[in-house]
Design brief:
The strands form 2 sheets. This protein has a 7-stranded mixed sheet with strand order 2-3-1-4-7-6-5. A 7-stranded mixed sheet has the order 10-9-8-11-12-14-13, with helices on one face. The protein has 2 domains: about 5-155, VC0802-like, CATH 3.30.2130.30; about 175-215 and about 230-370, 3-Layer(aba) Sandwich (Rossmann fold). By secondary structure, it is an alpha/beta fold. The radius of gyration is 23 Å and the shape is elongated. The chain has helices spanning about 15-25, 45-50, 70-80, 110-125, 175-185, 205-215, 235-250, 265-275, 310-315, 320-330, 345-350, and strands at about 5-10, 30-35, 35-40, 60-65, 90-100, 140-145, 150-155, 195, 255-260, 285, 300-305, 335-340, 355-360, 365-370.
Length: about 400
């Protein structure tokens, strides 16, 4: 298996960001579809993708794809896949999740049951046994059906990749780490520019930005299901990926990243999360109302996830909140603002039409990423004798 296909699911609307990340890791793209990117790699790519990708939800090792319109077809074609190439005799295997869109087979539980039976039948034939102890390493299978096309992969990640390991406690209405990272990557922000989140909640935007600035790989401090797959991936490959992540990390840097929230309990949580992520020294958190948002320097960035008003009693406060946010932003000379919200009247009360607006699904919630772009800072004069800008 020198060349394998890997599937990286992501948030709908952010496939281009994930594609760019995969290309930067040095892997070839096979296909980009709604909500996922498929790419070519090898066993080492499983390790590097899990450790380094900031915007993927998980990494699946693709077993195969086929068309199935009946459960009989699903059984026979699942049975025809080379499961023995992946799952050893003592492996624990099950269909962890099935998703179906615009397909004749639509019941997840029935799809899972039929596919498990087909896998058992195949492995019984290949290993010449009637019963499997399933006491070894776990091999959870995930399947997508789209217009009767079935795509099958084994989940190498386990717990979703948005769980970096730093956010034990969340504030209210948290944004996931993978979504926060993708939204930051959609902006022109770089570590030499100011970044402020005036509704920081549990601190996800500032923490993800600080991890990018310090070049901290998002998966370097957590474990993955495929680490137990010694039949497919040598342990050394995992060590190589983590060692490289350690070598690339540079957390003794000067940055200006700030997070504000009106709730002091939430600010405490954000500080704790930042410490857990190893970036507590790179972020200034403060209890502060959005109406008091200010900064003496120019050309900064606001990247934030303001309240949406999920409950009816909260909705009444939104016009005043977004108006206060808009007033504070207008006082920040030459700044840019980026906010993700499902609040339909965000632009109206913010007081300005967005330069760009991108629709993004946060789970099942349709949200909009409003982009209010300020001017670019002037280029710095050439440094004496260095010839660099």
């Amino acid at each position: 298996m020198d060349r394998i296909e890997l599937i990286a699911p992501c948030h709908f609307g952010l496939e281009a960001v994930l594609k760019r990340e995969i290309l930067e890791l040095g892997y070839e793209i096979a296909e980009v579809e709604d909500g996922r990117v498929t790419f070519y790699g090898d066993a080492a790519a499983v390790c590097y993708a899990n450790v380094f990708l900031r915007t993927a939800e998980r990494i699946l090792w693709k077993v195969g794809s086929f068309k199935a319109e009946t459960f009989e077809e699903l059984f026979e074609k699942t049975r025809s896949l080379p499961w023995e190439d992946y799952i050893p005799k003592d492996g624990k295997f099950w269909v962890a999740k099935a998703a179906s869109v615009k397909s004749k087979l639509f019941s997840p539980s029935d799809i899972q049951s039929v596919m498990k039976k087909a896998m058992v039948r195949r492995l019984q034939e290949r290993y010449r046994v009637e019963w499997f102890p399933e006491e070894g390493a776990p091999y959870p299978v995930r399947v997508f059906l789209m217009k009767d096309m079935v795509t099958v992969g084994i989940d190498t990640s386990g717990v979703s990749l948005h769980k970096r390991g730093y956010r034990e406690v969340s504030g209210k209405a948290p944004i996931t780490e993978t979504l926060a990272a993708a939204l930051i990557l959609l902006t022109p922000w770089k570590k030499d520019r100011i970044l402020v989140d005036p509704f920081c909640g549990s601190g996800t935007f500032p923490i993800e930005a600080a991890m990018m600035a310090a070049n901290i790989a998002p998966g370097m401090n957590r474990s993955f299901t495929a680490e137990a797959w010694t039949n497919l991936i040598r342990k050394k490959l995992w060590y190589d990926a983590v060692n490289e992540a350690n070598d690339l990390m540079k957390d003794n840097i000067d940055v200006d990243i700030q997070g504000y929230d009106i709730d002091k309990t939430v600010v405490r949580i954000a500080r704790k999360n930042a410490e857990e992520a190893g970036v507590g020294h790179l972020i200034h958190f403060q209890e502060r109302d959005v109406s008091k948002l200010s900064h003496p320097k120019k050309y900064g960035f606001i990247i934030t996830n303001p309240p949406y008003g999920e409950r009816l009693e909260d909705k009444a406060a939104l016009p005043q909140l977004y108006q206060a946010f808009g007033r504070s932003f207008r006082e920040l000379d030459s700044w840019s603002a980026y906010m993700i919200t499902s609040y339909e009247e965000a632009e109206k009360y913010f007081g300005r039409k967005a330069d760009k607006n991108r629709k993004i699904y946060n789970g099942m919630l349709r949200t909009y990423f409003y982009q209010f772009q300020g001017p670019k800072p002037p280029k710095r004069a050439k440094e004496s004798g260095l010839g660099r800008l």
